[in-house]
Hints:
mainly alpha, 2 strands
Amino acid sequence: MHRSNRPEYLQRLLLTLGIIALFLAIASLLWILAEVLLLAFIGVLVAIVLRTLAKPIARYSPLSARWALIVVLAILAVGAIVGGWLLIPEIISQVNQLVEGLQVALVQVEAFLSQFGLGQQWFNDIFSAGGPQPFRPNLIDRITGTFTQTLGILANLFFIGFTGLFVAIDPDMYRRGIVRLVPPRGRSRTREILDSLVAGMRAWLLGRVISMVVTGVAIGIGLRLMGIPLALVLGLLTGLLEFIPIVGSILSAGPAILIAITIGFRQALYVAIFYLVMQQLEGNILTPIIQQQIVSLPPALTLTAVLAMGFLFGPLGILVATPLAAVLYILVKEIYLKDLIERDRH
Length: 346
């Protein structure tokens, strides 16, 4: 009897080991392709934005969804060309001035801290008689590194753009493909979950865009009224970094404070207070108003997601951390809370 059970035991053991090996292989493959998957996720976000912009055009005009999408792309292209022609020269000029101003500000901070013997060794490691170390590699290494980074950024942007465009053109094809992976009895619920994900991401993106525009414009106007140089590019930087909740507003304050140091430490203090006040207004007034209709993530969860993804995947992880956390939040709410917990109660 004992011997007759041995083949069955070995069969179960081999099956278990095979499942574990398959799981580890899939996990390893996902880890290797993590950067590509994150870029594809950004492409899906771009597709949601494009479909959201095209939706009212298709609703209130005789155009089909695809033609409405073409109209949106044409409007965005014209807007980018006109905006670039009007603003890019000034932005480039201010960015160059910003880099120079930050170097001057760091030197002034070094001189100030050196009076108290603080931070001198750290600054000595960064600066030398020939200038900052990052600006003194040999010419060939600099050109090669710049070309490689630029090529990589362009490749990523093309991948994101085409992914977003393909998904936006025919989102139902990808939706049907996901639904077919589920057994027939669960396909109706899968469609509902996908609809909740798209609606949640659309509302979250809308909320972030509103926060980015309002905060960026307010910071730019405030810095201009305070007489701080480069208010345009600092406001633009603040608006872009506002896409990353909590962390973005903190990071954007650094360059503005350093630029203000070139005028005086009192102005730098005023700028720091101004950013602190704006952060409180945004967190306690603007964000609650916006989040009434969008996915509201707990601040601790948002901060943890940003730090964890930043540690694992660098700047790309920081960029997608919050929307990924929002996706997981919606999935937990729809699958775990509604389908398991609430079903067991009934």
